[in-house]
Design a protein that fits this description.
The protein is mainly beta. The chain has helices at residues 3-20, 192-201; strands at 28-30, 33-40, 43-46, 49-63, 66-70, 73-80, 83-86, 90-97, 100-103, 107-114, 117-120, 124-125, 128-131, 134-137, 141-142, 145-148, 151-167, 172-186, 210-222, 225-237, 242-254, 259-265. The chain starts with a helix and ends with a strand.
Length: 268
């Protein structure tokens, strides 16, 4: 685990100890339209439209309506099915976004899953990320495991132990990827009714690509990727790729349907 994730574990431990020393007696429930002050709660449930002024610390939160939190949020678990805006940082163990989430600060999480849409202004530090919807990060992202079969935009560096991406019809864009293992594949799955419908209604010939300035990893296998540079020990350049420069240590494979400007074998 990298230094940022070690820091993340320490923050979580401190948060748990703080919550154990407080008596969490009250829940916060908003069913209509209400503005309340921040504080320490057991469970937070928003089914209407709510504004919370100040920091919030709770065991869990569920947002089915709309909520603006004008401060930091610290929780063990959280689910957003409606719309949420958080002005400062979010510290959480398990975070699910099934609706729309807008984080003006950073995210510190153990498990982070997106099936809806989530935008994050500052850096993301997690142990695992799974994207089935859309994720937009205006800074960098540090994680152990990164999986996406949705749409991803990361303006700075994605740093992970493993990266796996299955590209849909929409393009994804990441400035740089640093990882031990990088796998980027075209999503050609059409099994089942859902897959058949997606294939039926998608634009003919439309294919999503990954745009990236640089990929640096030990094992790199990419398809439908446009990159300035790829550096790896074992490199596979699959169909639909356009790569300006590939630097490899041991092995390289290039598909006949890929374009590589220059290949350079380098020392270990």
């Amino acid at each position: 685990m990298n230094r940022e994730l070690t820091k993340l574990a320490i923050i979580f431990e401190m948060g748990v100890k703080m919550m154990e020393t407080r008596q969490l007696e009250k829940d916060l429930k908003i069913n209509g339209s209400m503005t309340v002050s921040g504080g320490t709660f057991n469970n937070v449930s928003i089914n209407g439209s709510g504004v919370i002024n100040g920091d919030v610390q709770c065991t869990s939160f569920k947002i089915n309506g709309a909520c603006d939190i004008k401060g930091n949020l610290k929780a063990e678990t959280g689910v957003i099915r409606g719309r949420a805006s958080i002005k400062e940082d979010l510290f959480i163990h398990d975070f699910d976004v099934n609706g729309r989430s807008d984080l003006k600060g950073g995210l510190y999480a153990s498990s982070f899953r997106v099936k809806g849409a989530c935008s994050i202004k500052k850096e993301v530090n997690t142990e695992s990320i799974k994207i089935h919807g859309k994720l937009d990060i205006e800074a960098g992202c540090n994680t152990d495991s990164f999986f996406s079969d949705g749409v991803v935009y990361i303006e700075e560096v994605l740093q992970a132990q493993e990266v796996e991406m299955s590209l849909r019809n929409s393009n994804s864009k990441i400035r740089k990827i640093f990882s031990e293992s990088v796998v980027v594949r075209k999503n050609n799955v059409t099994n089942g009714i859902l897959g058949w419908l997606k294939a039926l209604f998608s634009m003919a010939g439309e294919t999503g690509i990954l745009q990236v300035k640089e990929i640096n990893g030990k094992n790199v296998h990419v398809e439908a990727t446009v990159a300035e540079k790829i550096i790896g020990q074992h490199v596979v350049i699959g169909e639909g790729c356009k790569i300006a420069l590939v630097e490899y240590v041991d092995t390289i494979e290039v598909s006949k349907d890929a374009k590589v400007g220059k290949q350079v074998k380098v020392g270990a």
